[in-house]
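Entry 12.
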Amino acid sequence: MSQSTEEKTWWVFFPLKGLDISDDNHDLLEPVFGDVTLVSKRHVKQIIPLLKFYKSKSKPKPKNNDGPTITYLVENIALKEDFHSFVAVRRTGIVNNEEPMPEIVSSARSRAYQFAALLALVFLAKSKSQETCGLVEQLRRHVRNFVMLSLEGEGGFRAQVAGGFSFTIRDSSEALTLSRSDLQLALREEPFRSLTEALLPQKSPLPKSLVRAISQSVVRFSDAVHSVTFSSQLLGAVIAIEILLASQLDKYDTLKQRLSILLGIKTIDQYLLAPVFQARHLYVHQGEEVNSPDISFKAVALALEAILQYAKMVAHFPSKEKLLEYLDFVYQGDNLSGIWTEKERQAFQELQRHERKSFELSFYSQPAPELSAEP
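Predicted 3D structure (tokens):
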């Protein structure tokens, strides 16, 4: 990175795996999503010649900053990890080599995680194989190797050389390839439109507390689904729900009540709310690992439903606090409905700002995948 004391506009590139852009040309000069866009690795050879020091006759080119070298570095920035495209984020600021992590990079990374998490959620929900895309830096690997020897009888030998990995991120042979127009359509179709409208604008018109909750929840959700163990996946999914539905002093019973109102009894029973929260309790407080892929899958499904339903509601409320008060109000109303007349129950129904029903998503059509396997 060149040293400068001048304020400049920079594009910060973060490698993305599992999704590529089919358009022939990049869109950095007119980015389709404002301050963030997707750039294919194929576009790098178009972009590097636009660097202005190539056009300057008075200033020498920076050492080791010739076109082929920069192109090679950009295309191989993830070293040996395959990837397909970049989340590119535009930021303006002063950058110099004395900063180990320039402020604009930190800001750009936060935005990249938000955008990548939106992409990950949408394409996970649309995938029958429960695969999606993710930032390369979200890839996680851990190796589970062992050798078994039996010295009895004729003896025996068995070995496993296998790694757990982020099973949700598509590999090179299965990457999605979309045009920018198709990507825009995918993000804005139902039931993802409200979520996209909350997260995609650099400055959302929605209340800050609600946008912040959705953004933090989606990023945590994305981090959870890319995890390599059932325990971390379940814990991350439940945390994503907590971010939406809990304040600092709320008890877990309150969280479960609000989730039941947000999603409806049928949905929370379908996705095993009670066993999911019990597994979370045992893991957090007693260190009991989650060994069931079904339980972690159900936790992810609950979080996915909660995020999408929550995003559809935010336009009706001025703050997260008021949205939570609404959920508590509906919960109390449900408890009292047994003593109401039919007319009173109908009036109460008309006050409600959301429908308690599950979304029909391809994600739910297949059984929970294993996180790792023997070769």
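Annotation: The first helix runs from residue 44 to 47. Residues 198 and 211 are 6 Å apart (CA to CA).
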